[in-house]
Amino acid sequence: MGLKHRHSYESLAHSLKTTEKHYLPPHTAGALSVALVYPNLYSLGMSNLGYLTVHRLLLTTPGIAVERFFPALAAESPLRPPYYSFESGRPLGDFQILMFSFSYEGDFDKIPGIFAALAIPVMAKDRNRFHPILMAGGAAVASNAPALSLIFDILVPGEAETTLPAIMAILKEHGMEAEAIAELPGVWVPATGKKPSAPCSMHDINSQPAYSHIVSAQNAFGGAHLIELMRGCPRNCSFCLARSIYQPVRALRLEKLAEWIDQHPECRDLGLVAPSLFDHPQITEIFKLLDQRKIRIRNSSIKWEKLDSELLLILRRAGITGLTLAPETGSKKLQTAIRKPLNEERFLDCIRQIFSAGFEQLKLYFVACLPEEDKSDLDATIGLIKKTIAAAPSPSHLSAAFSLFVPKRHTDWQNRKPMAQQQMKQSIKYLKEELNRLSSQLRVNFASPQEALRQSYLSQTGPELAHEYAMEAEKCHENRLFSKNQFTALEF
Ligand code: SF4
User: Fold this and answer.
1) Could you identify the atom of ligand 1 that is nearest to the CA of residue 233?
2) Are the beta carbons of 489 and 464 closer than 8 angstroms?
3) Handedness of CA 108, 109, 112, 113 (dihedral sign)
4) In CATH, what number is assigned to the domain containing residue 414?
5) What is the pTM of this model?
6) For 117-150, how does the pLDDT look when each residue is reduced to its tens digit (9 = 90+)?
7) Which residue range(s) make up the domain with 323?
8) Are residue 57 and residue 180 in the same domain, yes or no?
9) Does residue 243 fall inside a structural domain?
10) How far apart are CA 382 and CA 379, in angstroms?
């Protein structure tokens, strides 16, 4: 059974490895071994520049052996323990450091299953020097580090580029010197009782851009290379974390992108990573550069206000047939509240322009169940969709995706209460019925109220989360239920 399990894991990992192109040599031997865990699907991990950047930093640190681990290599099929590293099939429990990358709070829920499978106590106080050092970083840690403070030995709410090299230098030379690590800016070692000090410097993305040094054909960008074009967002939407956790806003300059392209002449497809790509001050010049170099752009999410006929032409030439816009809501009252105004007339003109330019599909993103939302706000959104259908060649060219409001720490709306589940369900039912009445050809989908409420809880909870997870890990262990959480591919 054990051998069969290992064999099937290795053959699945091998088939994925054959889809990868590496731009740095692997480093699976060294004095200090790190398993870098992305607690979700392989395809999502390989699309996440935060995870890839940490991997690259470790790979280029002398004396460090680093291997990847994903608890699910394919959608809807979580791995069964025992767990092995992705690169060499080394047992995960053998590594000296387990480093988790949490890009959103929902992934916190993978902790009990993974810890139980490795027989690692969830509470840091129950572990000893024979257990691995547990570290965590990523956007969700920047958003809610207190939730993990009784679980992890080292938390990195700051940016990896400015914190990780110093942490690894101490760990390599002296081991888990908690007091010394706690002194580093942007690092939190909860067991010392000290609060983390703010990072003293921010990474200069022009000196070292974040890019995919491993390009997997299975990534969510269809196998494209990835490069970070902007860190942070100049806007300040009330519900969004992008502005608060990545300060100040930094944009990769055109000439630096050109340099990177020169160094990667085989790059024919490129995913441009930024919370709000079209707010890049040189976006038109960047698209022109990619057009000249015959590099296909893999992004489809655009800021409608920034579109003009020249950009539309470049996007069409780049092979894009569908675009995504995020009006968020049709209600003027809520547009003002979230600080994302929308001039309806200009928006509808833009829709007509998009279809005249030859695009075939348009996806609209909305947020439902916002604070103080009432029926008139839902009607305003339905009204906007109705007018958009009228501006499109036919409703079958449109789809609408609704996420549900989640109050996140560090946002202006962190203290707003999410709607009750019953109320969420009623709003969704109303929207579904009314949109279906507009046209049965319009494709509509909604986030799950249950998941939105769980994410709200995980965004707001504090250290008490560790007690819940410790009990859950106990149950996982007793029932051998390591794969309670399903892994589903997200649509990008
Ligand atoms: S929702 Fe978009 S535009 Fe608004 S702050 Fe977030 S990333 Fe920026």
Assistant:
1) 8
2) no
3) negative
4) 3.30.750.200
5) 0.94
6) 999 999 999 999 999 999 999 999 999 999 999 9
7) 300-461
8) yes
9) no
10) 5
